[in-house]
Amino acid sequence: xxxxxxxxxxxxxxxxxxxxxxxxxxxxxxxxxxxxxxxxxxxxxxxxxxxxxxxxxxxxxxxxxxxxxxxxxxxxxxxxxxxxxxxxxxxxxxxxxxxxxxxxxxxxxxxxxxxxxxxxxxxxxxxxxxxxxxxxxxxxxxxxxxxxxxxxx
Length: 153
Hints:
With about 150 residues, the protein is mainly beta. About 10% of the residues lie in helices and about 40% in strands. The strands form three sheets. Strands 3, 5, 6, 8, 9, 10 and 13 form a seven-stranded antiparallel beta sheet that branches. A four-stranded antiparallel beta sheet has the order 4-7-12-11, with no helix packed on it.
């Protein structure tokens, strides 16, 4: 910035150069940061839900699966097939309030059941243990939310 206009960054809200609020976009970026880095890998998700997408990343020692339910009125019970034996899986959720809200305002969004403070503190809750069987993980994804599933071989 050349100093002639105020700096603007969509993920945070500033007043006089001080962060005063974390915006909803920040939580989406934080979710993908928690997924880890690595190659995108093929995985199969079985569900009859519309407006549902999934991505898988092979990180260092685990696979992350991001499940995104964009339906504002229906939750999804998804079965994820990793194509290899699964020993355990856990999930954290990106959610807005009220439930089913696809356009939650700042201050109404959580990741892992917690908000990020303007100082950058995130006192997240522990992940939820997911049911596994063979090569699959069963995951419940509430309406208008996303789940980040960490799967261990």
